[in-house]
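Researcher: Sequence of 3'-5' exonuclease follows. Predict its structure.
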Amino acid sequence: MTPRGTVDWSRFDAAWERCVVVDVETTGLDPATDRIIECAVLVVDRGEVRRTHSALVNPGRPLPEVITGITGMVDSDLADAPRADAALPRILDLIGDLPLLGHNVAFDIAFLEAEAHRAGVDLPTGGRPGPRMRDRAVCTAAAARAVIPRSAVGRYRLSTLSEYIEARHRPTHRAVDDALATLELYRVLRRHRRRPDPRWVPTGPSTATP
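Model: Prediction complete. Tokens:
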């Protein structure tokens, strides 16, 4: 995976042709002990959504109050949802060997990897010679840090960036909404790469359009 704070612009641009946007909601921040409770996958061709898949996932434990406060989900919403071992195969099948686009996408990938490991589910092209999911990651947070000045947004949260670019889709801490907001941010960042927005001050030579 490209180190935090740097951007593989060739991978970023290549994702335009075809990629999947992923977003997971979880019971907490630690992939080793917390669980996925919702996942969305958008299959995207040239910036347009071709397929949408979302799944609630029963974490097998009560939701922390803070997570209910953030997502609006309660235990009864997940009671009849499949466990991760049943939900993951469809999610991973859609991901396949495509680039994975997300906001702070390392978080989403870490949870997918951890859940797959616990469930004994094979990751898509996770073994050799196929590239691992983390080796196909495209992070909109890293790209935004590279081209949007901190003074304009404060912190590079998806909600803050969506407000700054006046996005039509706004994140809600629900997986589909956040995935759509991420895709819209990606479109704007890519457009900036091609036609720089005068509001944004380049922060280094890597931000220049080849």
